[in-house]
Amino acid sequence: MTETDTYKTITKKTDNILFKDKNSKFFGYAFPVLTEDDVKTHIEALKKEHHSARHWCYAYKIGTETVIFRANDDGEPSNSAGMPIYNQILSFNVTNILIVVVRYFGGVKLGVSGLINAYKTTAQLTLEASKIIEKTININFIIHFDYPNMNTVMRIIKEKNLNIINQKLEMDCEVTISVRKKDAEATFNSFNTLHQISIKQCN
């Protein structure tokens, strides 16, 4: 079985997905996130925007190989909101994403099964409205070399069509490249065998 080096995510916010059940209103939002600070920022903004709502339930998943996730019921009965949202994230196989469902209580209790269905459906509709794209898992390397070796380094970069994300070309040169995970080992070996050129992985 080949190890995959791609993942699915969203690149922009999806909002205003409305689901109604027995006068309760559920507004769904999806945000691209890379850190838990991003999550906090989006939730604080929604609490200001929907200051009169009753619940701001959410789930997020961050990372590709090492994954951080959380599901929050925000006062709803245990596992009736956060987990149904998170299960939709798993179902759509997306990561680096936060889904928040804001609930305005309509005066009629839905019961636990009604809540599970409402939060699941809102999250599903939100994901269906989102533009989901596939991205590659990339590894970055820093290549160190002195100026006379520049042609050698640049020739390999051009031949292999490598993506330069940073460069400092002086007497002491440094180039940072980004490579698809599946090509990382071969790329590392292309430079590592060369005299007077060093390569190391960076975060």
At the first level of CATH, the class of the largest domain is Alpha Beta
What overall geometry do the principal axes of the alpha carbons give? elongated
Rounded to the nearest angstrom, the radius of gyration is 23 Å
**Count of DSSP E strands?**
11
The proportion of strand residues reads 35-45%
CATH topology of the largest domain: Ribosomal Protein S5, domain 2
Based on secondary structure, the structural category is: alpha+beta
- C-alpha end-to-end distance: 27 Å
Order of helices and strands: EEEHEEHEHEEHEEHE
What is the assigned CATH homologous superfamily of the largest domain?
Impact, N-terminal domain
For the residues shown, what is the average pLDDT? 93
Q: What low-confidence regions span 5 or more consecutive residues with pLDDT below 50?
A: none
The helical percent reads 25-40%
Number of domains: 2
Domain Impact N-terminal: 22-126
Pfam families: Impact_N
Organism: Seonamhaeicola algicola
GO cellular component, one term: cytoplasm
